[in-house]
Amino acid sequence: MKNSNSLKKSNITRKALRKGAVYVFLSIWAIAVLFPFYYMLLTSFKSYSSYNSEFVPKLYTSAPTLENYINAFKAVPLADYFLNTVIFTIATTFIMLCVIIPAAFAFSRLEFKGKSLVFTLFLALMMIPNELVVITNFVSITELGLRNTFTGLVLPSVTSVFYIYLLKESFEQIPDELYYAAKVDGTSDFKYLCRVMLPICRPTVITVTVLKVIECWNSYVWPRLITDNEAYYLVSNGIQEIRENGFGRENIPAMMASVVVISLPLIVVFLIFRKKIMEGVARGGLKG
Amino acid sequence: MEKSKSKAWLYLLPAIIFLGAFMVYPLIDVFIYSFEEGYNSASQSYFGTGTYNYLYILHDPYFLMALKNTFILVLVTVPLSTLLSLLISLALASVKKIRGLFQTVYFLPYVTNTLAVGMVFMILFKKTPYTEGLVNIILSFFGQAPIDFITGPYWAKMLVLCVYTVWVVMPFKILVLTSALASVKEEYYSAARVDGTTSFRIFTKITLPMISPMIFYLVITGFIGAFKAYSDAVAIFGTDLNAAEMNTIVGYIYDMLYGNSGGYPSYASAAAIVLFVIVLTITVINLLVRKKHVFNG
């Protein structure tokens, strides 16, 4: 009796130890993820002189200052980069929705000859890497004289076959009876789409919108190719510009303040739409 | 009925126009470019067709360096990040408390700007006159002399790039594997436990086969993603990647197209097609291997 009791006990301690080890392991990765964010926030509150006087960087600051944030908006046109990115993001996302919603509607609800063929061709386009088409797009936009314009920035970024696919799947969940009932009432297709389908599929529409917003906010390659006028820089190019030419000398605290300002909007969006974003990405959203 | 048919095309029209103009046409065009020798975008003329562009880039030391860097990056980061994300997802699946919090934290790098956070990594690794950088200071506890990670030896720069790349790709992998693990039916585990199966056996005989399609999916997408690496390198080493010896294939394409050494869409096209062929080959090999080894339940 005594024996089996101690056996149980050792079993329990072993389990507890194992559990503890798992938590330690998970915490180590959590720290690896969070530390760069902490370090950037911390550095952004250190003054230029105190940052440079620390041979061993301190992991806290006793005299936080907002001077870097003021600097970030005054010394470099961070506010302009920010505004450009907002305009670019809103325009691209809005036009994309206007393009993909009707397309998804046609694929899910309407009948026409060659539907499955066209849909297969659309899906095939999903396999094409962006690097392959960006060259011609760059040449076309340059030849059209659309460099350093929002039109040139936005137009090639508005279609996404993946989002059409995602929306189509969601539209198809709606029972056919609703459509026929609406038809009997004399509702037009367009009205049915706006009044019935979109409200029902709101969660998917929001997911698609948020994913596109993240993509736009982080886009770097296309904006870099198509803009060389600082007045049209987006935040990614702005940060690169700040790093290479901004703030005169290597003012790392001010750079970190800019990085915080740039990263914050997406972190807020993420915390609000956490579930939707993670669901959407798990279904096949790929970075870059 | 005739009317509704044309209406369907009307709904599709915007998508077809955009895809046609910015995907289908460029796709055809890039092949044409790659065979046009000495194409000049100013005069829109070229003096011949042939494989000269391919021969040129295959002899360009910058392209060969980009090729080498990209392959190292792929071979190091894809296995490493897949294995690490598998370990983390398994650990996540075995705990209940604060699992949601861990998941949220782990996903954070996915939504942050690669360029912006890359700068933080650069600073952590960078040696300046003022400080040796946090990473070097930690290494010095282990008796390691400071290493110039950002402008120093090749292997040190590659190490930083690999570390950052792994950090960037982990969120997606953890997310996919966590959902794959959650979808394994509880009955299998209960049945195995009733039979007194050891947890290692449960893992190799139940968990691994059940999530193997997802692991495979991650390996393929990981390969494709790593072959297209570019902005991570820019984030750490700046835009002049050739000078930093850290260029990637995609970086080479963009440098050929635009920037200090730019203006050669033909070379860029040839490089893009080489990249496409490599990615395609690896995807096909992966699919062939998959047929043999993956459990399709």
Could you explain how this protein is built, in words?
The complex is a heterodimer of chains A (288) and B (297). The mean pLDDT of chain A is 88. In chain A, helix 3 crosses helix 14, helix 4 (78-109) crosses helix 8 and helix 4 packs antiparallel against helix 11 (202-218). Helix content of chain A is 75%, strand content 0%. With 288 residues, chain A is mainly alpha-helical. Chain A is built from 15 helices and no strands. Chain A has helices at residues 2-44, 48-53, 67-74, 78-109, 115-125, 130-143, 150-154, 161-171, 176-184, 189-200, 202-218, 221-226, 235-245, 252-272, 274-282. Chain A starts with a helix and ends in a 6-residue tail after the last helix. Chain A has 2 domains: 2-68; 75-282, MetI-like fold. Chain A is flat and about 75 Å long. With 297 residues, chain B is mainly α. In chain B, helix 2 (52-59) crosses helix 12 (265-293) and helix 4 packs across helix 7. Chain B has a two-stranded antiparallel ribbon. The two termini of chain B are 43 Å apart. The longest helix of chain B has 34 residues, at 2-35. The model of chain B has no long low-confidence stretch (mean pLDDT 87). Chain B has a single domain, classed as MetI-like (MetI-like fold, Orthogonal Bundle). The interface between A and B is large, with 91 and 84 residues.
